[in-house]
Design brief:
By secondary structure, the protein is an alpha/beta fold. It is built from seven helices and five strands, in the order ααβαβαββαααβ. It has one domain. A five-stranded mixed β-sheet has the order 3-4-2-1-5, with helices on both faces.
């Protein structure tokens, strides 16, 4: 799949779903400041994807002006259980490289399902992205933002309540439309890795 198209659809999803519904109260600011970096891990090789992740942590170590990175895997992990295995390996790699407390990972997948949730629970759509992806967050930055945010512990519950109040059909439709729109974006912080 064409990397540029994956990134365009990802950005449109972030705008049309995540920012529109304020699922992540600090996403809009970083997107507007153009401090989000996007990467595409091509193919289906989990070892190559983990190597890409490790390289991205090193990049972030050296580039303080990059706030966060979204790594998109358009050809890999179609099965959510396989994706969760990959997330587990990514978390283990984060710990083994001594990045725990420096970075954290958030996970998104087209079939995301919270533990204990029914497959068709609208709440799952807070994390249902166009493609399997990992979001790398800087822990220090996240802590600063959360310290200034009223009731940060309530964010997940508020998101669940909002998604359920919007309903399954609307959440499904918004994600679908975000993938169909054609954007003319200048994407300067994009990279590909095979």
């Amino acid at each position: 799949m064409e990397a540029h198209k994956c990134i365009q659809q990802t950005i449109q999803w972030v705008k049309a779903v995540v920012i529109k519904h304020n699922f992540c109260p600090f996403a809009a600011a970083e997107l507007l400041r153009r401090r989000v970096r996007y990467g595409v891990g091509e193919g289906q090789n989990a070892e190559a994807h983990l190597a890409l992740l490790a390289r991205e942590w090193k990049h972030l170590d050296q580039q303080a002006d990059t706030a966060t990175t979204l790594l998109v895997f358009p050809e890999a992990y179609p099965d959510f259980a396989d994706y969760l295995d990959f997330v587990g390996w990514a978390e283990a790699l984060l710990r083994s490289l001594d990045y725990e407390g420096i970075y954290q990972l958030a996970s998104f997948h087209p079939d995301y399902r919270f533990a204990g949730a029914e497959p068709e629970d609208p709440a799952n759509y807070t994390n249902r992205s166009p493609y399997p992806m990992l979001h790398i967050l800087r822990e220090a930055q996240l802590e600063r933002v959360l310290a200034a945010y009223h009731d940060p512990e309530g964010i997940p519950l508020r998101n669940i309540d909002l998604a359920r109040s919007l309903g399954l059909e609307r959440m499904r439709e918004e994600r679908r439309r975000s993938m169909e729109r054609r954007l003319d974006l200048k994407i300067s912080l994009i990279f590909r890795a095979d």
